[in-house]
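Notes, p. 3: input format for complexes.
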Amino acid sequence: MAPSLIWGKNMRSKKECRKEALARRALMSAKEREAAGRRITDFLRDSEEYQLAEKILVYASYRDEVPTYDLIEGALREGKQVFCPKIEGQAGARTMSFYRIMDPEELQDGFQGIPEPVVLQGRHYETGKNSRDLILMPGTAFDRQRRRLGYGGGFYDRFCRRAQGAVRIALCFDCQLLEELPEEETDIRPERIVTESGWI
Ligand SMILES: Nc1nc2c(c(=O)[nH]1)N(C=O)[C@@H](CNc1ccc(C(=O)N[C@@H](CCC(=O)O)C(=O)O)cc1)CN2
Ligand SMILES: Nc1ncnc2c1ncn2[C@@H]1O[C@H](COP(=O)(O)OP(=O)(O)OP(=O)(O)O)[C@@H](O)[C@H]1O
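Output follows (200 residues plus adenosine-5'-triphosphate):
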């Protein structure tokens, strides 16, 4: 069955939008990325959502994504519980779970070379009553209506549906913002987006 699309006139495909935003992100220098990452981290730390959250579900950044290692270390130092995503299951039936880490060294290269948490007893994040838990979402492209595209796995869309009570904030460089993204009914928008220029 074809997915139901809320498709405007002349709207570009998700694939094209991803490609454009990723190409723009790749043009940032390491220095620019680092400086922008620091500003994003500072904005986030100042937010009520971050300060109130006891549990933070955060992607472990890889390649040229908005860096999250300072955030992870800071949150651990402050005594927050930090969980990172892991892709589990065989092709065709992959799902995303989160596992608690106590130290960034507990992350090891996993799915597609992304750093993932080691699976240990008692570390699994349970979706259910998740009020005040904070999900920090990665993404490839965003727009000002807070539409979001990831790498195309649908992992965050599926996970966020199960973690209804949690607050969703996406981390994004300014250059990843496009005019208007296509959206499917299953896409879940973050409640806020933070870039190096501030909040959307
Ligand atoms: N740092 C980080 N961790 C994360 C995510 C993320 O976006 N960033 N994810 C967010 O979901 C999940 C991993 N999702 C991924 C989904 C697809 C591909 C990927 O490489 N896809 C192939 C082609 C896919 C296709 O054929 O459609 C590619 O891009 O070449 C990578 C990661 C969980 N962990
Ligand atoms: N809750 C869901 N139930 C069933 N299928 C879904 C759900 N969410 C997304 N999908 C499907 O998964 C596929 C990939 O979705 P999409 O292109 O939106 O991923 P993405 O948002 O880029 O990736 P991610 O969420 O992993 O960052 C699409 O075919 C979409 O219809």
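The radius of gyration is 16 Å.
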